[in-house]
Amino acid sequence: MGSRARDTDRMNKDPSTSPEGASERHAGALTSPGRAFQARWHLIWLIYVPFYFISWLYRKPGPVELVASLAGAAFFLLLFWTIWRQRGRPMLWQVIVIFCLGLALSPFNVGWSVYTIYAMSFAARMTPRRMAIRTMIVLEVALLALGPLLQAHGMSAWVSGLLFGAVVGFAGLMQSDMERKNQELAIAHEEVRALATTAERERISRDLHDLLGHTLTLVAVKAELAARLVSRDAEAAEREMQAVAAAAREALGEVRTAVVGMRGASLAFELDKARQALAAANVQAEISALTTDGHPAQEAVLAMALREAVTNVIRHAGARRCEIRLEPTASSLVLTVADDGVGGKIAEGSGLKGMRARLAAIGGGLKIQSDKHGARLVATAPLKAAP
């Protein structure tokens, strides 16, 4: 039980399996080559910067315009590089500075709206989303309010800045939302994968506990019997040791199949094994089992329950008699294991908890009664899965 708790603690602390580590792993993936390529891909949006200089193809800029335009472009590229280093998440002051840069260049070149459109695009990528929307609205209202002044430097530039800024900003907002949802979906997938890994580890832990608990109990009982017989009946002691070897080989095979999830346990086989184990422990076994053909899933769960119950009888009950009864009804299979042992209060360990978990998974249940006359375990496996 203690080792089981320590294993669970290790799984919870291990960032490769715990759900809390999923977001950390996804954040770490941002530095992977794929994410680095995606980050570099954002540099393609610099292709719109030359649109500012298109008017120079049919006119010669003055010295002041030339210096102001080149200085403005250099300053914008510096801001763009800074935002790119922030993984495309700009801060409010950076958006405002780019917007004001466009306004400041409006007296020199009709392409000034390129920078205000960039500002709208960056505003859409701000976090939180509420701030992004508010900033976009403020920038649009500012352009509308400054319309009379900006129209003097080119009506078309002002209209394009107003309309294309809104379109680009809205598109950027949608793209940002999509990226955020994709990231949340990736984190959710990581959490599902981590939970599946944890569940599989717990399943293997339960199965190994039940498989090895029963087999090792049988091995211990037969080894003790062989030790008592070796001085009086060497042949009988040899037979018991051969049975120990056979049980060990069988346990090895069961462990292998349990690890890969192909248990295939049958009630008929477990009933025979229970009879052998109880006889070796000098416990009188009374077994009554009706046919249960056609229900392999229920049989597999009840077989594991029978194995755990018989192991507990041999280990803890101190019983002289054990009754095992299997009764199929119209709606379920009912397994009853009763003994005349010491009884008393039962503290459920990992074996009984694993039994409950398996029965609950198929919609069944487990009832345990224990008093001074012994203990009684009733496991019910419905023939139809629970909703």
TrEMBL record:
Molecular function terms, GO-annotated: phosphorelay sensor kinase activity; protein dimerization activity
- Domain Histidine kinase/HSP90-like ATPase, residue spans: 272-343
Query: What residue intervals traverse the membrane?
Result: 41-59, 66-84, 96-119, 131-150, 156-174
Which keywords does the record carry?
A: Kinase, Membrane, Transferase, Transmembrane, Transmembrane helix, Two-component regulatory system
> Does the keyword Glycoprotein feature in the UniProt annotation?
no
List the source organism.
Caulobacter segnis (strain ATCC 21756 / DSM 7131 / JCM 7823 / NBRC 15250 / LMG 17158 / TK0059) (Mycoplana segnis)
Query: Which InterPro entries does this entry report, sorted A to Z?
Result: HATPase_C_sf, HATPase_dom, Sensor_HK_TwoCompSys, Sig_transdc_His_kin_sub3_dim/P
Give the start-end ranges of region Disordered. Answer: 1-27
Q: Which Pfam families match?
A: HATPase_c_2 (PF13581), HisKA_3 (PF07730)
Q: Which GO terms describe its cellular component?
A: membrane
**Protein name as catalogued:** Integral membrane sensor signal transduction histidine kinase
Signal transduction histidine kinase subgroup 3 dimerisation and phosphoacceptor domain residues: 200-265
Biased segments, Basic and acidic residues type: 1-13
Coiled coil region boundaries? none
